[in-house]
Amino acid sequence: MLEISFAKAVLPKGGVMILPLAEGAKLHGLAAALDKLLGNAVKRGMEAARFTGKAGAQAMLLSPKAGFARVLVLGTGKAESFDAKAAEALGGAVVAALAKEAEVVVLADEMDPALAAHIGLGGRLKSYRFDKYRTTLKDDERAKLGKLTILSSDAAQAAAAYAPLSAVAHGVEVTRDLVTEPANVLYPEEFADRCLALKKLGVKVEIFDKKDLEKLGFGSMLSVSWGSAREPRMVVMQWLGASGGLGADGKKVKKPVDPIAFIGKGVTFDTGGISIKPAAGMEDMKWDMAGAGTVTGLMAALAGRKARVDAVGLIGLVENMPSGTAVRPGDVVKSYSGQTVEILNTDAEGRLVLADVLYYAQERFAPKYMVDLATLTGAIIVGLGHEYAGLFSNDDTLADFLIAAGKATGEGVWRMPLAPVGESYDKNLNSAIADVQNIGGGRAGGSITAAQFLQRFVNGKPWAHLDIAGMAWATKEGPTMPKGASAFGVRLLDRLVAMNFEG
Ligand code: BES
Ligand code: MN
Ligand code: ZN
């Protein structure tokens, strides 16, 4: 893993160095000192490369002097628009450009130490790799950048600002690892066991097995797992950072006070069940547990940075398989809420899982707000593409909080319609023989129908649903993200908490 540290602003005597420079800016501070030491090679290199300082622009000097292997001048764009996000992109660009180096040093002595910390975050996020199943990778094919040192005018302040960011980055890594694992390795029981690792951060972790869930009466969620050889699980994670119930010592055990509840869909593989999916692209359904993966990473982030909030994370874990014991279209099951559900399509399974977990969450914890995350519908990808998650909410305040956190982190959400129970969109869910059916009439407004179904299980409590089907997996790399599992939602919801719920 990339090691990130902050050090005082003293020009190194050699090595690989990065000079961040804004549009039209002159060399100052350590950068100017380096240029002088190198006989103005930096200035000449910038001219030769027609360096403008535009965000992402680069001028690379190779061995300008013995002992100085590379000097990379990196454009940071307009000075006035250089913010945390831009600093993260800069960190990401450093890692992308210098992946083969063992150690690099960023001369950030002219930068606000708080922003220098975000260079570290961007570098850390961009350097994520999942190589555990590659046995034939040659050494030079593995990313090697081992050490990123950021020189700051106030290294102690930069390091202090980086500490909570590092906890959030760890949360992102937890999520990416879970989401990337194949379904033969990560099935419900294994997922639940991995959640136990959060205990050492001070999170209380409870695992409910099949018997427990049967006793509770989770008939809706359990029906999804009927066809699978793997047993279902529910995991309840509690971080009591405001009421002070649980410290890292794990001693005092209290009930969370007015917690925020996060609920995740954890379908470790979704074949569609008897309403089976077509073969093409079905491998994507290993990441149908991204909602649960995100809730787990979020709990790690909140606990890791000791957020002053009481938060609970609840995840429903099942595998959706077709078999002789699988649930059939037309079957009727009894949900934990007491409502009966007619299952008309076994591929609309995520909502069957969330129905029971959502109802349990509001009943047990009486949360101030509930937010669920789910790779719930293909229709949200048709509607919003890969730019925004769909946001559905019965509470305007919570919806606005989420939209603001989205703008602050770049993990955007777009609000979609939701009708009150009994009205317009909701009526499509009335079943001929049960209280509710799990799909609407046709394909129209499929993501809305799914949200309406969930709403029947939130008991009127303030709640938001994020449909992350288009966001959980990236087929292209981003400034601070390799291809693959994005961990969308960890930073968004961490910020939601930081902006609104930490007093
Ligand atoms: N997990 C899928 C949704 C999905 C599709 C996630 C593509 C990520 C990428 C979900 O369980 C599902 O199958 N939804 C159905 C609902 C339909 C049967 C009403 C869908 O979207 O087709
Ligand atoms: Mn499905
Ligand atoms: Zn699914």
Structure characterization notes:
By secondary structure, the protein is an alpha/beta fold. The chain folds into 2 domains: about 5-155, 3-Layer(aba) Sandwich (Leucine Aminopeptidase, subunit E, domain 1); about 165-500, Aminopeptidase. The chain contains 15 helices and 19 strands. Strands 7-8-10-9-13-17-14-15 form an 8-stranded mixed sheet, sandwiched between helices. Strand 11 (about 330-335) and strand 12 form a beta hairpin. Helix 4 runs parallel beside helix 5, helix 8 (about 220-225) runs antiparallel to helix 10 and helix 9 packs across helix 15 (about 490-500). The longest helix is centred in the N-terminal third of the chain and has 26 residues, at about 155-180. The two termini are about 35 Å apart. The site of ligand BES has 16 residues, from loops.
